[in-house]
Design a protein that fits this description.
Blueprint lengths: L30 E5 L2 H11 L5 E6 L5 E7 L2 H7 L8 H9 L2 E6 L3 H15 L15 E5 L7 E4 L8 E6 L2 H15 L45 H15 L5 H15 L3 H29 L3 E6 L5 E7 L2 E7 L4 H15 L12 H16 L10 H7 L8
Antiparallel strand pairs: 1-4, 2-3, 2-4, 5-6, 5-7, 8-9, 9-10
Amino acid sequence: MEGNLHLYPNARSAGEWGTSRFRPAEERPVTGLCGGRGRRLERQVRAKAPGYPGVYGMYDAQGRLLYVGKAKNLRQRLLSYFRTRSRPPKAEKIIDQTQRLVWESCGDEFGALLRELELIQTLLPRYNVSGRPGRRRYHYICLTRPPAPSLVVSPKPLAHALACYGPLTLRRRSEEAVRRLNDWFGLRDCSSRIPLHFRDQSELFAEELSPGCLRWELQHCLGPCVAACSRQEYHAAVERVRAFLDGRDPALLEQIRQRMHDAAAQLHFEKALALRDRLMALEWLDARLRLLRRARSGPAWVYPIEGWDGRQRWYLIQHGQVRTVCYAPTTPEQWRDYRQRCRSTFRFKAASTEGWAHPGEVDSVLLVAAWFRRHPQEQQRLLPPQQTLRLGSPPPHPG
């Protein structure tokens, strides 16, 4: 089938997928392809597909890329598409349209995961959903500017916001969490066109003020529109909200949890249920923001993995993302190159403390986090960059 590439003028072979930042620059991946349909394609896969980790792509008769996948064992994964009794409907639909199948080796399963995401984001296969740009609609939680800031949900970071947090998915859950935070701390959620009157704001001709909504009467707002609070009191509430969102004040969740238990003990079940709903909304938001904070401000690591080819690859991870990959250095020249790469990648500066990240980073951050969550034992292999640099330092002269 290799001689009939002209039958698929728009198709791309694995070797034409381009370079990857998730493999050493000098690595040349092993590639292969099969062509045909049904049993003919299965026979070629059985005869040619290798048993090492990698990624694969499936093309239709017009050369359009249908699907990109990854495998710990390419041969086993590709043969699973031909097991009619156990394959899911989506796999059946894909393989029925496939007339050309290509693959590309990766050093290990972790590298295959990274390469799969990279190819999905660049090639946009028809049947891939997870990792496809634009599939997820991200949003941000923003704290608006003075004189009376409030929390809002925005599709992008607001230019003059005091703080922005995200990006996040599941907008409805974010909106619920924002509503409950505004209610708990008494921040307004009305239009910026509503005039504000703080209690410490003197007026020459005082007028009778009426609230613009029911939240003040329900004690869900400090009432900066009716001079019910001073500017200092309102700003103190804003700082408490920021402390929670920044992760500096985890006591809020425990406070709500304790009130919920107290209400249940006093048989005030309706109040306990309301507090439970508030707690669940804020626990969800806290968990998402904690993940982003860990990714953005976590330490830099070098993650060594032994590949199927017997060579060890070092994945350089910073801010929750794999920045580059290289082979484990063995010669003085390789150690010199590694030191330069290490310094240019990490720069050994304090990590960013911003509350938000760019949407393009999120899928990669979540992929790396999910890998170590599924394989917690792998965290023990992580090495600080400074420690790896010491491995290549010459021993001190005796005496």
